[in-house]
């Protein structure tokens, strides 16, 4: 059984891509077959895995979704790239923005990505979708395709307001489009454990949401190594295997798998 997890927060720069890469590779290191889907036209996930010019890639998520819309025949594995750390990637680039705009008049536009994922999921244990920082149609497609949503929250600003908007969208999707959608959990990222501010944010998130939503036990520390790894084309496990961020993402991978049990 494959589990599909959307990694979403409409706030930018909170660690969605970093979490997609390192949770994905963390799960692969623990014996799972993993597909990462870049659902952000910025192509940050694609670039983070070493494809530094996403706009030069021919077949992307946009191509696949266009094929579904036009009911064109295609191989379900078209466009999938293999990364040396044992994960697969369906890349994205700027074409996804154009697609999002042109979907306005498409019938059943919320379920286009799901139609594809239902086919490809037979080949994987986990599919992680790195969402863009907006709650537009591509993100809705990701939420409709997913079994659960993992929400990274940067522990450096007051996140309560932004989270309410996301939770509203999740509730709407659950009501109208995907009754089985769960919240995998809120993950605190870029936590500076030396400061009281980080502790305050953490306490605030737990107080505000902890009664209804899982807050992951592990949180991701702030670290220059984590910031550097985005430009390296590999995971934190390859770049800084003994560092605290590596240990945190290994813990997160275990926690996510424990949810299945
Ligand atoms: N634990 C960390 N410590 C320090 N820097 C980090 C950490 N995690 C991520 N970063 C850096 O913070 C920036 C934002 O991270 P990331 O790209 O993962 O966020 P995002 O939510 O995917 O952004 P966007 O909304 O633009 O897609 C990046 O430069 C990344 O390298």
From TrEMBL:
<dbReference type="Pfam" id="PF13614">
    <property type="entry name" value="AAA_31"/>
</dbReference>
<protein>
    <recommendedName>
        <fullName>Sporulation initiation inhibitor protein Soj</fullName>
    </recommendedName>
</protein>
<comment type="subunit">
    <text>Dimerizes in the presence of ATP but not ADP; ATP-binding is required for double-stranded (ds)DNA-binding. Interacts with DnaA.</text>
</comment>
<dbReference type="InterPro" id="IPR025669">
    <property type="entry name" value="AAA_dom"/>
</dbReference>
<feature type="domain" description="AAA">
    <location>
        <begin position="3"/>
        <end position="183"/>
    </location>
</feature>
<dbReference type="InterPro" id="IPR050678">
    <property type="entry name" value="DNA_Partitioning_ATPase"/>
</dbReference>
<comment type="similarity">
    <text>Belongs to the ParA family.</text>
</comment>
<dbReference type="InterPro" id="IPR027417">
    <property type="entry name" value="P-loop_NTPase"/>
</dbReference>
């Amino acid at each position: 059984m494959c589990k599909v997890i959307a990694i979403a927060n409409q706030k930018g720069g909170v660690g969605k891509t970093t979490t997609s890469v390192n949770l994905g590779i963390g799960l692969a290191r623990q014996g799972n077959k993993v597909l990462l889907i870049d659902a952000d036209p910025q192509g940050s996930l694609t670039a983070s895995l070493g494809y530094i010019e996403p706009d030069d890639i021919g077949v992307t998520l946009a191509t696949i979704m266009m094929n579904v819309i036009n009911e064109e025949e295609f191989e379900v594995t078209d466009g999938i790239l293999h990364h040396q750390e044992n994960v697969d990637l369906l890349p994205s680039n700027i074409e996804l923005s154009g697609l999002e705009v042109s979907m306005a008049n498409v019938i059943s536009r919320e379920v286009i990505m799901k139609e594809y994922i239902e086919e490809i999921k037979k080949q994987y244990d986990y599919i992680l979708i790195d969402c863009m920082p907006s709650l537009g149609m591509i993100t809705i497609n990701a939420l409709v395709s997913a079994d659960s949503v993992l929400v990274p929250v940067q522990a450096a600003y007051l996140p309560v307001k932004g989270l309410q908007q996301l939770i509203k969208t999740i509730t709407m999707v659950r009501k109208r489009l995907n009754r089985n959608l769960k919240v995998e959990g809120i993950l605190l990222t870029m936590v500076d454990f030396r400061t009281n501010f980080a502790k305050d944010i953490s306490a605030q998130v737990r107080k505000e949401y902890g009664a209804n939503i899982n807050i992951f036990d592990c949180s991701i520390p702030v670290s220059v190594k984590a910031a550097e790894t985005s430009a390296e084309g590999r995971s934190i496990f390859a770049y800084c295997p003994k560092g605290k961020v590596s240990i945190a993402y290994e813990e997160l991978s275990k926690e996510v798998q424990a949810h299945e049990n």
